[in-house]
């Protein structure tokens, strides 16, 4: 097939950067970020977090080609913060939310395991 090996889609090559930033000169406070070796999963989460930010006026992404794991994220801000700062803030908030989700999931999973070890799930029937 023409598709690259699955592991090559997510491992960075020699001298390859995870994120590259390009300032957009046609619009004030705008930048285009290219994420290498990432796909729609991260793109949609980051775009949604940016969209909900007070200082971001525009956030959208596109995937240039479906066979290659990369996407371009365009961010416009109101000038209070830079697009780069908005992206960093959004990523930090996502990391916090995902850590909370991980804790809640682990807690519920452990409780489910404990209930499964008790006859009748702990119910006296």
TrEMBL record:
It holds the Pfam family RNA_pol_L_2. CDD domains: RNAP_II_RPB11. Residues 31-103 form the DNA-directed RNA polymerase RBP11-like dimerisation domain. Keywords: DNA-directed RNA polymerase, Nucleus, Transcription. One of its GO terms (cellular component) is RNA polymerase II, core complex. Signal peptide: none annotated. GO terms for molecular function: DNA binding; DNA-directed RNA polymerase activity; protein dimerization activity. One of its GO terms (biological process) is transcription by RNA polymerase II. Its main location: nucleus. InterPro entries: RBP11, RBP11-like, RBP11-like_dimer, RNA_pol_Rpb11_13-16kDa_CS, Rpo11-like. It comes from the Eukaryota. PROSITE patterns: RNA_POL_L_13KD. It is found in: Nucleus. Belongs to the archaeal Rpo11/eukaryotic RPB11/RPC19 RNA polymerase subunit family. This is DNA-directed RNA polymerase RBP11-like dimerisation domain-containing protein. It comes from Cladosporium halotolerans.
């Amino acid at each position: 097939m023409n598709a690259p090996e699955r592991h090559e889609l997510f491992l960075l090559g020699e001298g390859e950067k995870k994120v590259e930033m390009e300032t957009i000169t046609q619009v004030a406070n705008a930048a285009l970020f290219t994420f290498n070796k990432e796909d729609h999963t991260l793109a949609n989460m980051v775009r949604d977090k940016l969209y909900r930010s007070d200082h971001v006026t525009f956030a959208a992404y596109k995937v240039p080609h479906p066979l290659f794991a990369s996407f371009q994220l365009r961010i416009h801000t109101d000038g209070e913060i830079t697009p780069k700062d908005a992206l960093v803030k959004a990523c930090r908030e996502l990391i916090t939310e995902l850590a909370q989700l991980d804790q809640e999931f682990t807690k519920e999973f452990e409780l489910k395991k404990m209930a499964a070890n008790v006859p009748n799930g702990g119910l006296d029937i």
